């Protein structure tokens, strides 16, 4: 029998009970982005031992940058005793030390091209928004998000890396006035043709228009070259300058969906709030975006529903049918069809006794045994990116105890490696499946976020193409 | 010879009797409906596919003088809608303003201390909308779309799904299939009521569901 009816079926005459809720909470945890300027590295191998990551050569000048972002370790015929000689061929000092420590012969070392993490700073943010907007195609056994009226969707964003990245990117942005005089920033500040050009010579009154244009182009080129020469010759490259040239070399504004070169110093913060709060837009839901700073805050919120101490910002939005503003700006009642529950005891906290978590998503960097809330945000140039703030499965398991989860709760982990067994134990996902009644889905490979940059619907995918399901208690 | 009628979604004895021109008891107690009475405990809850015998009309002869005015009174048949409304903590929404719209007729009132809304309706009324509170003033405003007479018996899976939905445990489409969402809703209900959480529809769960739903 098929009766795909909506609404509540009630009998006539008899007493029918209708109850609201209980509401459920969807928690989407978003890890920090890395410092893309400082994280350039490549995988090196001597063909027999496991590959190792070596950092790019730390740039000091304008010319160094092209090696820094596009270096390749290959077997040059150089004297290994002279690292500087190697650096001219794209080796970093740290790479030299690593290779020597491994006992490898630099001449035999080979590697892929260099790369960095998170060139697009918001790849995790966008992924979460795509999932909760249900625009991205979810590959089974990953599950789509299906909230119902009255449910709460909470995005918990580990904020410090985004705060630091916002500042670093703004300091490197061509829209920032500190780069106004650089040639690459000219299109942003000095559109071609508007700046005064050298006056034509007296005898050019009879030249053709084409000839005139050629002369103007030549003059413009000479002017720009002179500016570049002067600028690079006369002023030492600061960190902001280096980052500016890296940014201009590695990003493009022709890719429509990405904010690669921020227009304002607070552009990222606004972007995150708007992107996440408007994800989905389903009626009758409460959306919360919380920027938090410590693992303790996160774990406490999972456990108790209470955000205490100092959290940075909490943004709350209900969709039109949720809890609309009561009056418009003229004091007239607003039309709407709200349905909400009295159990929600204020912003941003919830009563965990009544509002349990039914789904947990994670987007961010991760390793075999932990979520890396901060990965590479504090690196220096010439260092291989590394994690600063891991969050282990045991910490999460402890927080998810004591009836925090609904009986049908499940977790979807979208980060790298979380479904892979480390050499000395079980995988992160396998451990977490002990507390999630409906299991955990994770990747047993690295996860690619590349597609997020240009596709407004994309979700990350495992590089081996498969998500793995870990059943409860498996 | 009574006609046999196959019950459709939304039918009950009182709605059928109203449309056929009988009193509900006349239809329910008809000899040909004995099997139905044995199967269904209450004539307000039938399952689509049930067979109901429609009695034949009996022509009543009444002596009446010519050139005089005669009045005949037809017994009024009225049904009632009774709904107990609770919040997520299972507290009754007591003494709250409500608006009930049934078949485009709107009524206002105050819920009882038990959170009950009770209003007379036409026996064949099909749809309704119940709104508790003021959408412009109250932060906890609720509304429910009602499908009148469509509640199926608890011993059918659709009846279980309907009750779960009414009690706030979403199980997706009311399709009579115990799929993953229905199983999850059952598990949530079992957890809510302190039963053994299995996700399976056992007799204890069915009884608790019927008890919680009040019918």
Report a brief summary of the structure.
The complex is a heterodimer of chains A (474) and B (215). Helix content of chain A is 26%, strand content 19%.
Supply the key terms:
heterodimer; A: 474 residues; alpha/beta; eight-stranded mixed β-sheet; 12 helices; B: 215 residues; alpha+beta; two-stranded antiparallel sheet; 22% strand
Question: Order of helices and strands of chain B, N to C?
Answer: EHHHEEEEEEEHHH
Secondary structure: helix percent of chain A: 25-40%
Mean pLDDT of chain B: 90
- Helix-strand makeup class of chain A: alpha/beta
Task: Supply Rg of chain B.
Answer: 21 Å
Bin the strand percentage of chain B.
Answer: 15-25%
Strand order of the largest sheet of chain B: 5-4-7-8
Number of helices of chain B: 6
| Outline type of chain B | flat
* Mean pLDDT across every amino acid position of chain A: 79
Low-confidence stretches of chain B: none
Strand order in space, largest sheet of chain A: 9-8-7-3-10-14-15-18
Whole-angstrom Rg of chain A: 27 Å
Which pair of chains has the greatest number of interface residues, and how are they split between the two chains?
Answer: A-B, 44 and 69 residues
Based on secondary structure, the structural category of chain B is: alpha+beta
N-to-C CA distance of chain B: 34 Å
Number of strands of chain B: 8
Topology order of chain A in helix (H) and strand (E) letters: EEEEEHHHEHEHHHHHEHEEEEEHEHEEEE
Oligomer kind: heterodimer
* First-to-last CA distance of chain A: 36 Å
């Amino acid at each position: 029998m098929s009766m795909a009816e909506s609404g509540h079926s009630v009998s006539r005459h008899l007493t029918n009970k209708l109850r609201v809720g209980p509401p459920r909470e969807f928690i989407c945890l978003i890890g920090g982005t890395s410092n893309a300027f400082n994280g350039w590295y490549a995988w090196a191998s001597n063909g027999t031992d496991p590959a190792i990551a070596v950092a790019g050569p730390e740039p000091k000048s304008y010319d160094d940058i092209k090696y820094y972002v596009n270096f390749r370790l290959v077997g040059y015929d150089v004297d290994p005793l002279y690292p500087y000689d190697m650096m001219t061929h794209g080796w970093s000092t740290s790479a030299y030390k690593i290779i020597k420590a491994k006992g490898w012969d630099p001449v035999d070392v080979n590697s892929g091209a260099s790369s960095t993490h998170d060139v697009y700073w918001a790849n995790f943010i966008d992924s979460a928004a795509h999932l909760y907007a249900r625009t991205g195609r979810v590959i089974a056994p990953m599950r789509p998000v299906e909230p119902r009226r009255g449910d709460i969707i909470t995005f918990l964003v580990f904020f410090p890396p985004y705060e630091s990245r916002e500042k670093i990117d703004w300091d490197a942005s061509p829209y920032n006035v500190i780069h106004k005089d650089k040639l690459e920033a000219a299109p942003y500040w000095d559109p071609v043709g508007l700046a005064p050009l050298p006056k034509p010579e007296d005898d050019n009154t009879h030249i053709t228009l084409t000839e005139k244009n050629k002369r103007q182009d030549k003059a413009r080129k000479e002017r720009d070259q002179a500016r570049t020469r002067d600028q690079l010759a006369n002023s030492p490259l600061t960190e902001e300058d280096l980052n500016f040239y890296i940014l201009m070399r590695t990003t493009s504004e022709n890719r429509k969906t990405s904010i690669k070169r921020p227009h304002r110093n607070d552009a990222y913060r606004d972007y995150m709030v708007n992107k996440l709060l408007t994800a989905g837009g389903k009626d009758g839901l409460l959306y919360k975006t919380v920027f938090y700073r410590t693992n303790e805050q996160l774990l406490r919120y999972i456990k108790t529903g209470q955000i205490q101490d100092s959290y940075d910002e909490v943004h709350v939005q209900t969709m039109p049918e949720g809890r609309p503003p009561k009056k418009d700006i003229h004091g007239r009642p607003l039309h709407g069809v709200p349905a909400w529950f009295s159990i929600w005891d204020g912003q941003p906290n919830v009563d965990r006794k009544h509002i349990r978590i039914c789904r947990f998503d994670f987007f961010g960097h991760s390793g075999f045994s932990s979520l890396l809330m901060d990965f590479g945000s504090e690196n220096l140039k010439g260092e291989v990116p590394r994690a600063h703030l891991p969050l282990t499965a045991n910490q999460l398991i402890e927080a998810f105890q004591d009836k925090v989860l609904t009986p049908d709760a499940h977790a979807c982990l979208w980060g790298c490696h979380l479904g892979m067994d480390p050499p000395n134990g079980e995988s992160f996902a396998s451990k977490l499946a002990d507390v999630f009644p409906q299991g955990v889905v994770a990747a047993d490979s690295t996860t690619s976020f590349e597609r997020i940059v240009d596709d407004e619907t994309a979700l990350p995918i495992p590089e081996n193409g498969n998500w793995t399901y870990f059943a409860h208690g498996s | 010879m009574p006609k046999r009628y196959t019950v459709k979604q939304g039918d009950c004895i009182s709605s059928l009797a109203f449309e056929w021109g009988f009193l509900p008891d006349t239809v329910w107690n008809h000899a040909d409906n004995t099997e139905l009475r044995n199967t269904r405990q209450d004539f307000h809850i039938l399952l689509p596919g049930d067979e109901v015998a429609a009695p034949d009309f009996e022509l009543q002869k009444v002596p009446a003088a010519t050139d005089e005015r005669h009045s005949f009174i037809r017994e009024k048949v009225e049904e009632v809608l009774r709904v107990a409304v609770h919040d997520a903590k299972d507290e009754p929404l007591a003494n709250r303003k409500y608006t009930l719209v049934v078949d485009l007729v709107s009524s206002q009132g105050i819920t009882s201390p038990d959170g009950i809304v009770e209003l007379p309706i036409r026996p064949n009324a099909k749809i309704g909308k119940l709104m508790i509170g003021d959408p412009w003033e109250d932060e906890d405003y609720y509304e429910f779309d009602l499908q009148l007479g469509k509640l199926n018996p608890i011993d059918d899976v659709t009846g279980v799904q309907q009750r779960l939905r009414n009690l706030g445990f979403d199980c997706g489409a009311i399709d009579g299939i115990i799929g993953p969402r229905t199983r999850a809703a059952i598990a949530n209900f079992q957890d809510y009521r302190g039963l053994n959480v299995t996700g399976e529809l056992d007799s204890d769960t069915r009884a608790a569901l019927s008890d919680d739903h009040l019918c």
